[in-house]
Design goal:
Structural class: alpha+beta
Order of helices and strands: HEEEEEEEH
Low-confidence stretches: none
Number of helices: 2
Strand content: 25-35%
Mean pLDDT: 85
Shape: elongated
Strand order of the largest sheet: 1-2-7-3-4-5-6
Number of strands: 7
Largest sheet: 7 strands, antiparallel
């Protein structure tokens, strides 16, 4: 498998973090692009993930980095023992759930933390949007009378 290649792994940049969760196992740090995992993981956030070599320790519903023949994706993963596929689910409900054949999985990593540049108050934005909608509905009701 590509991710198991000592030459490839040795060529990757490395860094240290002073956190207990990052001191064990084989970890990767990867930038996530796109909005399929929004709002949990936003576009351009970084995810630190631990390498998984045994499908028996998969935790259904957790976020995994899946390295496949077609590329790399970050999704919630569901696996039933004995099946030849995993089910991949986005947190953004506009994206379709799909199955990934295990034969196409080159590497699998369980997300343990994320790094973000985004300090936006998403709840405040949502409250503002709801207030704007209420104001519009009120204005329409006044016009109807």
């Amino acid at each position: 498998a590509i991710m198991d290649s000592p030459q490839m792994v040795g060529a990757l940049p490395t860094f240290s973090m002073p956190l207990a969760a990052t001191r064990t196992g084989s970890l990767i740090c990867i930038e996530i692009t796109g909005d399929s995992m929004h709002p949990t993981i936003k576009d351009r956030e970084w995810v630190i993930a631990e390498r998984i070599v045994d499908m028996e320790i998969i935790k259904n519903g957790f976020i995994y980095i899946i390295v496949g023949a077609e590329g790399v994706v970050c999704k919630r993963l569901y696996y039933d023992q004995g099946k030849d596929y995993v089910k991949l689910v986005s947190d953004n409900e506009t994206y379709t759930t799909y199955r990934q054949p295990l034969a196409d999985v080159v590497g699998l990593y369980k997300s343990i933390m994320k790094l973000s540049y985004d300090f936006r108050n998403w709840n405040n934005d949502l409250r503002k949007d709801i207030k704007d909608l209420k104001d519009r509905v009120s204005a329409l009701e006044v016009r109807k009378k």
